[in-house]
Design goal:
Distance between the termini: 29 Å
Structural class: mainly beta
Number of strands: 10
Strand order of the largest sheet: 6-7-8-9-4-3-10
Radius of gyration: 14 Å
Order of helices and strands: EEEHEEEEEEE
Shape: globular
Number of helices: 1
Length: 124
Protein backbone atom coordinates (compact mmCIF):
# COMPACT_ATOMS: atom_id res chain seq x y z
CA UNK A 1 0.00 0.00 0.00
CA UNK A 2 1.29 3.47 -0.91
CA UNK A 3 1.73 6.01 1.87
CA UNK A 4 -0.30 9.22 1.50
CA UNK A 5 0.58 12.50 3.19
CA UNK A 6 -2.05 15.26 3.24
CA UNK A 7 -1.17 18.91 3.61
CA UNK A 8 -2.69 22.35 3.47
CA UNK A 9 -2.02 26.03 3.96
CA UNK A 10 -3.06 27.87 7.12
CA UNK A 11 -6.45 29.02 5.80
CA UNK A 12 -7.26 25.77 3.98
CA UNK A 13 -7.64 27.38 0.54
CA UNK A 14 -4.81 25.16 -0.77
CA UNK A 15 -4.82 21.42 -0.04
CA UNK A 16 -2.61 18.72 -1.49
CA UNK A 17 -1.74 15.04 -1.19
CA UNK A 18 1.66 13.44 -1.67
CA UNK A 19 1.93 9.71 -2.33
CA UNK A 20 4.86 7.37 -1.85
CA UNK A 21 8.21 7.62 -0.16
CA UNK A 22 9.71 11.08 0.33
CA UNK A 23 12.89 11.77 -1.67
CA UNK A 24 14.45 13.32 1.41
CA UNK A 25 13.68 15.37 4.50
CA UNK A 26 16.10 18.09 5.54
CA UNK A 27 16.74 21.30 7.44
CA UNK A 28 17.56 24.22 5.12
CA UNK A 29 19.58 27.08 6.57
CA UNK A 30 19.88 29.21 3.43
CA UNK A 31 19.19 32.94 3.50
CA UNK A 32 16.48 32.62 0.81
CA UNK A 33 14.47 30.10 2.84
CA UNK A 34 14.75 32.31 5.91
CA UNK A 35 13.39 35.27 3.98
CA UNK A 36 10.59 33.25 2.38
CA UNK A 37 9.42 31.66 5.62
CA UNK A 38 10.32 34.32 8.15
CA UNK A 39 11.79 31.55 10.31
CA UNK A 40 15.44 30.97 11.30
CA UNK A 41 15.43 27.59 9.51
CA UNK A 42 13.07 25.64 7.24
CA UNK A 43 12.36 21.92 7.07
CA UNK A 44 11.42 20.45 3.70
CA UNK A 45 10.27 17.08 2.41
CA UNK A 46 10.79 16.24 -1.24
CA UNK A 47 8.42 14.31 -3.49
CA UNK A 48 8.49 13.49 -7.18
CA UNK A 49 6.32 16.02 -9.02
CA UNK A 50 3.95 13.35 -10.31
CA UNK A 51 3.43 12.02 -6.75
CA UNK A 52 1.69 15.21 -5.57
CA UNK A 53 -1.84 16.33 -6.40
CA UNK A 54 -3.28 19.70 -5.45
CA UNK A 55 -6.80 18.76 -4.37
CA UNK A 56 -8.11 22.25 -3.65
CA UNK A 57 -7.07 25.72 -4.76
CA UNK A 58 -3.71 26.41 -6.36
CA UNK A 59 -0.16 26.99 -5.20
CA UNK A 60 0.96 30.41 -6.40
CA UNK A 61 4.61 30.50 -7.46
CA UNK A 62 7.30 33.06 -8.07
CA UNK A 63 10.94 32.87 -9.13
CA UNK A 64 12.87 33.86 -6.03
CA UNK A 65 16.32 33.55 -7.59
CA UNK A 66 17.82 32.13 -10.80
CA UNK A 67 16.73 28.48 -11.03
CA UNK A 68 14.53 28.51 -7.91
CA UNK A 69 10.75 28.77 -7.73
CA UNK A 70 8.87 29.12 -4.46
CA UNK A 71 5.20 28.46 -3.75
CA UNK A 72 2.70 29.92 -1.33
CA UNK A 73 -1.01 30.40 -0.72
CA UNK A 74 -2.14 33.65 -2.30
CA UNK A 75 -4.91 34.01 0.30
CA UNK A 76 -3.09 33.52 3.62
CA UNK A 77 0.55 33.69 2.53
CA UNK A 78 1.56 30.28 3.90
CA UNK A 79 4.97 29.17 2.65
CA UNK A 80 4.45 25.84 0.86
CA UNK A 81 7.08 24.83 -1.70
CA UNK A 82 10.54 25.22 -3.15
CA UNK A 83 11.63 23.81 -6.51
CA UNK A 84 15.03 24.07 -8.18
CA UNK A 85 16.45 23.33 -11.60
CA UNK A 86 19.01 21.08 -9.87
CA UNK A 87 16.21 18.57 -9.13
CA UNK A 88 13.75 19.13 -12.01
CA UNK A 89 11.50 16.14 -11.25
CA UNK A 90 11.07 16.98 -7.54
CA UNK A 91 9.39 19.66 -5.44
CA UNK A 92 10.14 20.29 -1.79
CA UNK A 93 7.22 21.00 0.55
CA UNK A 94 7.37 22.68 3.95
CA UNK A 95 7.00 19.92 6.54
CA UNK A 96 4.82 22.16 8.72
CA UNK A 97 2.10 22.17 6.04
CA UNK A 98 1.47 18.43 6.47
CA UNK A 99 -1.19 16.97 8.75
CA UNK A 100 1.23 14.31 10.04
CA UNK A 101 4.28 16.57 10.22
CA UNK A 102 5.61 14.66 13.24
CA UNK A 103 6.27 11.67 10.97
CA UNK A 104 8.49 13.69 8.62
CA UNK A 105 11.72 13.89 10.61
CA UNK A 106 14.67 15.60 8.91
CA UNK A 107 17.84 13.55 8.53
CA UNK A 108 20.32 16.13 7.23
CA UNK A 109 21.18 19.83 7.02
CA UNK A 110 21.75 21.78 3.81
CA UNK A 111 23.46 25.16 3.55
CA UNK A 112 24.76 24.60 7.08
CA UNK A 113 27.39 27.26 6.40
CA UNK A 114 24.52 29.80 6.42
CA UNK A 115 23.07 28.64 9.76
CA UNK A 116 22.42 31.50 12.16
CA UNK A 117 25.13 31.46 14.85
CA UNK A 118 22.62 31.58 17.73
CA UNK A 119 20.56 28.65 16.44
CA UNK A 120 21.44 25.42 18.23
CA UNK A 121 19.52 22.31 17.19
CA UNK A 122 19.65 19.04 19.05
CA UNK A 123 19.80 16.28 16.44
CA UNK A 124 19.31 12.72 17.66
Amino acid sequence: MTETYSGRCLCGAVRFEARGQPKGIFWCHCDSCRRHSGAPVSVFVGFENDAVTVTEGAITTFKSSPGTTRGFCVRCGSTLTCATVHFPTETYYCVGAFVRAEELKPSKHVFANEQLPWLHLKDD
